[in-house]
Write a structure and sequence with these properties.
Length: 291
């Protein structure tokens, strides 16, 4: 199943090339955004992820002129593994230089290690679709994203925001200063997988999702050894801590670099007692979001 998914993604994305009109003129740049928010995980619910998704949609419409038809929303049980895969193909398959693309994910993340040797350290950071069940066919791994996104042509203005735990240590953050905090690291890890993860960590430090090699502006909710928080804003409205403060700082600084927005977001989180430290990765972090 996993090999089939990876091959489909690679083949689809391998067809992504700049296109021109019949008269030789370059086609008009397009916009697309795939936004995923999952609260109603069976047995592991969250509360702020759908709000995160709606907030990102509203932000793109207000600040960057996106239309409803250019935004695909996958919420709760509409965000199964196959749904997200289809959405990612829709997002990337016709991308060309000058086009704008956004992928925003708010939900659980986890670590996974195979029994056989895969990537160095045998470690994979994954997102958890609605139908996540600790099997490779119901997760999307960092290596899947890398194979897909690296095939997009140079010059695509692509930003990826992941308000989840990709490489946290699967521990719960404790409430501080009255904050209600729930870790976005998927709970109830099967013991055989937990053991493989421990062995992989002992063998090699886990790498980041992007590690600075893809032509994207990537924002993650925390360092590899932390978890991201599902929490509440000052009014008591459920939200993801990363998405809430990232959009607040980006809205005040639309023209500054993504790296600076993440630095300001880190300061906002720390000032309110959050321990997670957001990260900026990828080749586009010194450019403004969507520029």
């Amino acid at each position: 199943m996993r090999l089939i998914l990876v091959l489909v993604l690679a083949l689809m994305c391998g067809c992504v090339k700049p296109t021109a009109n019949p008269d030789g003129e370059i086609a008009t740049p397009t916009k697309k955004a795939l936004i995923v928010g999952i609260n109603t995980y069976p047995g592991a619910p969250l509360s702020g992820c759908v709000n995160d998704a709606n907030d990102m949609k509203d932000f793109l419409i207000k600040n960057y002129g996106y239309r409803d038809s250019e935004i695909k929303m996958l919420l709760n049980d509409k965000a199964k593994t196959a749904d997200i895969i289809d959405g990612l193909i829709w997002l990337t398959q016709d991308a060309k230089a000058g086009d704008k693309r956004v992928f925003h994910y708010s939900g659980h993340g986890a670590e996974y290690a195979y029994e056989t040797t895969g990537q160095p350290g045998n470690m994979n950071q994954v997102i958890c679709p609605y139908d996540f069940d600790w099997t490779p066919g119901h997760m999307i791994m960092d290596i899947d994203f890398a194979k897909m996104f690296k095939e997009m042509p140079n010059g695509v203005i692509f930003n990826w925001v992941s308000d989840s735990c990709f490489s946290g240590d699967l521990t719960k953050e404790l409430p501080k200063n009255g904050l209600k905090i729930v870790s976005k690291s998927y709970p109830n890890v099967p013991e055989k997988i937990a053991n493989r993860v421990r062995l992989a960590k002992a063998a090699k430090k886990p790498r980041g999702m992007v590690n600075g090699v893809l032509d994207v502006g990537y924002v993650s909710g925390c360092r590899f050894d932390q978890t991201s928080a599902d929490t509440e804003d000052v009014s008591g409205r459920p939200c993801g801590a990363l998405t809430h403060f990232f959009l607040a700082n980006l809205g005040r600084n639309l023209t500054v670099s993504l790296r600076m927005v993440v630095t300001l977001t880190d300061e906002s989180l720390a000032a309110r007692g959050y321990e997670q430290v957001p990260q900026a990765e990828g080749a586009r972090i010194d450019r403004a979001f969507q520029e």
